[in-house]
Design brief:
The protein has 13 helices and 10 strands. The protein is α/β, with parallel strands linked by helices. The strands form 2 sheets. The protein has a 6-stranded parallel sheet. Strands 8-9-1-10 form a 4-stranded parallel sheet. It is globular, with a radius of gyration of 19 Å. Bound molecules: S-adenosyl-L-homocysteine.
């Protein structure tokens, strides 16, 4: 089938997803991005949503092969932010007018159920913001309690829909368990985010197509696709980084296929290329997630090498980002940017 016919279809088969991901011709790639932009415009409008991330701990109990803060990773200085430090950082994000706060960390049980609950309550009490948790796999009772405390969203990437690759990457953990967590989170009322890493060793285009199908099947509110960037602190230190076109194509195909789903232009795009995030927006993304992790922790949350903006003052990053967004012809949203899927809101 020719490209235009596929792009104009309401739904796409796995074979069609793979054929879109396989496009190499520059004219065709630009057509794909243009279509993704049209779909973004139709379902998400002209606004880019900012989510302020606080990476509050780089201690981790998992061994994910690709991740620089994995357990046992030597050569990294570990840190944990205190309750007050997290609140203070959230205050800065709130004052800058950003309406979503993402709390992200390694899987760190030092932060107990009660600590996180109290944190959520305090944040909700002080600020009119949405709260996204991105703490890895925790237990179901914790998810429930944090929801009751006021958390709105949970970001738990499936990383790859290939069961064998998933277990290989995650120290024999099972994809099914990860998906059970996602289903539970959705059932108890979280807006959920999942997604993959693109360009992982041993990953095929069919795997990436399956990642997109998984996002659709679970009707996720947000789907995040990050380019693999090696970390010198991991067993994958000498693996090649993701090709920029492959991640941009994945995002564009995701936009066309998933339609009214939030899709971020991840910070890792800016590691591949200085204006990688702008290219991500032009390929269909509608969310940017700047880090507000303060000094002296800011340069220590190194999940991959050459992370951008870790020596810059996070407050200074915001005007830079806003200008970049405006230059592309988009507005920075002033709303919380909840799910576009009204039926998923409660
Ligand atoms: N502990 C939390 C947060 C992990 S960091 C959790 O497990 O959910 C957030 C995301 O960074 C991960 O979900 C993964 O998709 C991404 N990531 C980790 N290492 C990466 C790498 N080397 N390249 C690209 N993305 C990476």
């Amino acid at each position: 089938m020719i490209l235009n016919d596929i792009l104009n279809k309401e739904n796409l088969t796995k074979e069609e997803l793979i054929s879109l991901l396989s496009i190499e011709n520059e004219i065709q790639i630009n057509k794909l991005f243009k279509k993704a932009s049209e779909v973004r415009e139709k379902y998400c409008g002209n606004e880019i949503h900012l989510r302020g991330i606080i990476e509050f701990s780089n201690y981790c109990e998992q061994y994910c092969l690709y991740c620089g803060i994995r357990k046992g990773s030597n050569g990294i200085k570990r840190f944990r932010m205190s309750f007050d430090e997290i609140i203070e950082t959230a205050n800065i994000i709130n004052q800058l007018g950003i309406k979503t706060i993402v709390l992200q960390s390694g899987e760190d049980s030092f932060y107990t159920k009660d600590f996180i609950s109290n944190l959520i309550k305090e944040l909700k009490d002080k600020f009119d913001v949405a709260i996204t948790l991105s703490l890895g796999e925790r237990n179901f009772e914790e998810y429930q309690e944090w929801k009751t405390a006021g958390a709105d969203r949970y970001l738990l990437k499936h990383e790859t829909a290939n069961e064998i690759l998933f277990s290989f990457l995650h120290n024999k953990q099972k994809l099914k368990d990860r998906l059970d967590h996602l289903i539970f989170l959705k059932e108890i009322g979280y807006q959920i985010g999942t997604g993959n890493i693109v360009g992982l060793p041993h990953q095929t285009l069919e795997d990436i197509a399956n990642d997109l199908i998984l996002c659709k099947k679970y009707d996720v509110d947000m789907a995040s696709f990050s380019p693999f960037v090696p970390s010198k602190l991991t067993p994958f230190y000498n693996q090649p980084k993701c090709n920029l076109n492959l991640i941009l194509k994945t995002m564009a195909v995701a936009r066309i296929y998933l339609k009214n789903t939030h899709i971020p232009a991840t910070t890792a795009l800016a590691t591949l290329e200085e204006d990688g995030r702008e290219k991500g927006i032009l390929a269909g993304a509608n969310v940017v997630m700047p880090s507000f992790t303060p000094f002296p922790f800011r340069d220590k949350y190194l999940i991959y090498d050459n992370k951008r903006c870790i020596t810059e003052d996070p407050i200074g990053c915001l005007p830079c980002l806003s200008v970049r967004i405006n230059m592309l012809g988009f507005e920075v949203s002033k709303s919380k940017g909840d799910s576009f899927k009204k039926e998923n809101l409660n």
